[in-house]
Amino acid sequence: MLENLRSVVTKVISPICRWLLRIGVTPDAVTWAGTIGTVLVSMIFFPQGWLWQGVVVLLVFIFSDLLDGTMARQSGRSSKWGAFLDSTLDRIADGAVFGGLALYFAGPADSVLWCGAAIGALVFGQVTSYSKARGESLGIPVHGGLAGRADRLFLGLLGALLTGLGIAWALPAAVAVLCLAGAITVGQRMFIVHRAIQQAAEQRAEEAR
Predict the structure, then answer these.
(1) Which CATH fold would you assign to the domain 2-208?
(2) What is the reported pTM?
(3) Which of 28, 68, 86, 90 is catalytic?
């Protein structure tokens, strides 16, 4: 859902990207800096129960995820390596965010139930991305789904922010929704790939007659 806003955001950040390129910052450097910052903040702030503070600091590093791709296109340095690096480090950053939230539930919040839900949200989020990549490696376009990466991060961080500001149920509600949405999204993508494989098999059988 939120992925549809990317074109609007790109227009806003384009001047910043041009400035960074002029001073010699590379897209890969931005990708690495954003990931390292996200991991450190998630692993330090959230387990301590510093939820709203962690979200505020994280926004700076998550913003970098919007910059690197635009910088690569503007500089003409878009490459398979850059795309691979960005996708790989995104998985690490996402794992750190939801891992940090799980540690919050295991520590200050003292809830095994919601710790498990946060881990579930993490797992389904990772499998959502993997199922898309694996399906496309088989030559099957895998689009759509209920919860894309931007949606997962937005909902998880919104829940953390609101809980940090005193709305105790917000983060548990967010991870519960993300678990359900993640399970549905993985199911949708499995169905898409299974249907495509079945259709291809039926077409080959028809052609062989």
Answers:
(1) Four Helix Bundle (Hemerythrin (Met), subunit A) (1.20.120)
(2) 0.87
(3) 90
